[in-house]
């Protein structure tokens, strides 16, 4: 059974997830900020990081990528539609806020560009990369079927949905992604969002006002 730890980081409290196994191997999802805090947790728990995965590349999900990758020599997995967002502050959103630094992630040549939905296997970890665009064109949800949870970024929240007024956003596309890719999961699947508390497909089908009438 996998262990999931969540850390709310940075100026907008973005959820970073560290998923680990019994051997202390781990995968890091959306390290948005506060690299020192993430590194402290990795050391405290004696984790052995294997990779970084991004649900999408908005600034609040990428801020600690370079620091972690440099320290642990980690591969980075990102959707092909948002590769060039990593070093473009206007596309990743940081350039719109004067109080923020320009968030730039350097992408080495040998990175892992996710071009199609696929099963991903790293060490003993096995999960599905499923495309859930709408909040951004390259949004990905990572589905751990055997362990009953999904890391969905800013696609679906507890009683809410991702915003669609940013570059490449679309309400119609987002709702289609939610209904076809997330609400079709087993009803008790734990949905881990990019912000806030976890939820389940069952709860959101019954209680989410943004999904009624779709």
TrEMBL record:
Superkingdom of origin: Bacteria
Cofactor(s) needed for function: Zn(2+)
Domain (Metallo-beta-lactamase) ranges: 13-195
InterPro entries the record matches: MBL_Glyoxalase_II (IPR051453), Metallo-B-lactamas (IPR001279), RibonucZ/Hydroxyglut_hydro (IPR036866)
GO molecular function: hydrolase activity; metal ion binding
Keywords: Hydrolase, Metal-binding, Zinc
CDD domains, A to Z: metallo-hydrolase-like_MBL-fold
SMART domains given in the database record: Lactamase_B (SM00849)
Name assigned to this protein: Glyoxylase-like metal-dependent hydrolase (Beta-lactamase superfamily II)
Source species: Ureibacillus acetophenoni
